[in-house]
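FAQ

Q: What does a record look like?
A: Structure on top, sequence underneath. For example:
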């Protein structure tokens, strides 16, 4: 009798659920096949496009010699004379790269302090090198015996400590991971066979990546070191199918395009193409400009010169065109072996935060507008805000069905007579129904159209809050 009653109750509940339409709204999550055609149909997680600004951290054993760049070991092994000379002058004969690892002490590493600096910089996500090409992991890899930060040097889980601190500040946390390792004998043996074997991928690479994903649940997996082999060797499509279908971050994670020979610029949630990529024009796919504050290196260098460090103007000349053209800016700094961020890097990041506190409305959550770079004034770049997010093509220009709520013109050079001349917004301004205001300033600016060019009277520069680049907002008047 109880079974009959229970069956009747289940039937009635199902009927009621069906009547209120719940069955009609439940969607079975798509499962992606391990091939590029299907993987490429995955919509970009919205958070990434809206974030716009991230910070990249290259930190590892190479931070100990902190000479030349993060490729020091490779350059030294290849016989680069400057590296040989450096080693002859400062280290005893027979010194090995592995002997640098105990000197990677990170004794002053304060993840909470780092995270607060990152939050104040205005960045929305952080990407830490969990392992560079040297193979040393900043997490307790179960496959890197005696060559990880838990066993050698800092004796702590650097990835885990920073992930926790970054998330406490409300930022997204991601990891960089090099596919290959310069001198790992297992990888070298696979390479010797012409990559006919995949012992390294199966016994080292995949286990490390799955440990990273399962233990730290990153929002970004930034792949690198792919260029010696095809994606079939790295088993890239199988890995991404697992990430998108079954991993604990399947709805959150984004990956770049470095998954094998010929893959960059063709497959991935966002494209990197190459280091310091900034095309200056709108592309058809979401992309990222990863660049360094130290123009010479991704890792920390003790002998860097001030002239080699990007000024705030140079930083903004990278960031503003990048965002205007639909990209994200991933700004790299290299921490020291002691676990500190050099004051010059702190200053640049905090200055960027001050700028974004005023001008962030023209950066965050924006989309490309009809024009990117003004055709009359090359120092002016446009963005806009829309009421709806285009999940299929987040960097598309506004369509006829879009409602554009505001257009922003960010100009990198102050005009000599304090009159900014723009051409591309002129057709929209002809109706006379637009307000123009400068972000960070009260009131509206006077403007007029002369021979098809909008002339905007700017405030006195001395009273303007922003010191480096300035943003104008064009919005419809409300009557």
């Amino acid at each position: 009798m109880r079974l009959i009653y229970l069956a009747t109750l289940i039937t009635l509940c199902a009927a009621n659920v069906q009547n209120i339409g719940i069955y009609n709204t439940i969607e079975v999550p798509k499962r992606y096949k391990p091939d590029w055609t299907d993987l490429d149909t995955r919509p970009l997680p919205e958070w990434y496009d809206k974030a716009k600004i991230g910070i990249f951290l290259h930190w590892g054993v190479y931070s100990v010699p902190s000479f030349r760049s993060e490729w020091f070991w490779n350059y030294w092994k290849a016989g680069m004379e400057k590296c040989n000379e450096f080693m002859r002058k400062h280290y005893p004969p027979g010194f090995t790269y592995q002997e640098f690892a105990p000197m990677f002490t990170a004794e002053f590493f304060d993840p909470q302090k780092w995270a607060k600096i990152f939050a104040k910089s205005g960045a929305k996500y952080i990407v830490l090198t969990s392992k560079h090409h040297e193979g040393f992991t900043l997490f307790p890899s179960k496959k890197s015996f005696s060559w990880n930060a838990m066993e050698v040097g800092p004796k702590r889980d650097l990835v885990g400590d920073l992930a926790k601190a970054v998330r406490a500040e409300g930022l997204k946390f991601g990891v960089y991971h090099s596919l290959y390792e310069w001198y790992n004998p297992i990888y070298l043996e696979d390479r010797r066979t012409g990559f006919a074997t995949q012992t390294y991928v199966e016994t080292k690479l995949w286990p490390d990546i799955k440990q990273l994903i399962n233990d730290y649940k990153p929002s970004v997996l930034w792949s690198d070191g792919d260029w010696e082999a095809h994606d079939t060797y790295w088993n890239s499509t199988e890995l991404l199918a697992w990430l998108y279908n079954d991993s604990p971050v399947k709805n959150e994670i984004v990956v770049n395009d470095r998954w094998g020979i010929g893959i960059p610029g063709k497959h991935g949630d966002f494209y990197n193409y190459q280091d310091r990529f900034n095309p200056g024009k709108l592309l058809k796919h979401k992309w990222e400009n990863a660049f360094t504050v130290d123009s010479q290196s991704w890792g920390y260098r003790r002998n860097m010169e001030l002239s080699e460090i990007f000024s705030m103007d140079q930083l903004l000349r990278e960031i503003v065109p990048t965002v205007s053209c639909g990209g994200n800016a991933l700004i790299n700094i290299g921490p020291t072996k002691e676990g500190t961020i050099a004051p010059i890097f702190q200053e640049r990041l905090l200055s960027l935060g001050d700028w974004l506190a005023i001008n962030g409305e023209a950066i965050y959550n924006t989309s490309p507008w009809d024009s990117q770079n003004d055709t009359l004034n090359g120092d002016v770049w446009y963005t806009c805000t829309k009421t709806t997010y285009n999940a299929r093509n987040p960097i598309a220009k506004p369509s006829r069905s879009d409602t554009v709520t505001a257009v922003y013109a960010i100009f990198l050079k102050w005009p000599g007579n304090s009159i900014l001349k723009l051409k591309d917004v002129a057709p929209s301004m002809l109706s006379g129904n637009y307000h123009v205001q400068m972000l960070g300033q009260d009131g509206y600016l006077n403007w007029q159209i002369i021979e098809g060019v909008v002339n905007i009277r700017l405030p006195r520069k001395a009273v303007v809050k922003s010191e480096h680049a300035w943003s104008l907002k064009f919005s419809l008047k409300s009557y």
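Q: Is there anything notable about this one?
A: The domain at 36-359 is CATH 3.20.20.80 (TIM Barrel).
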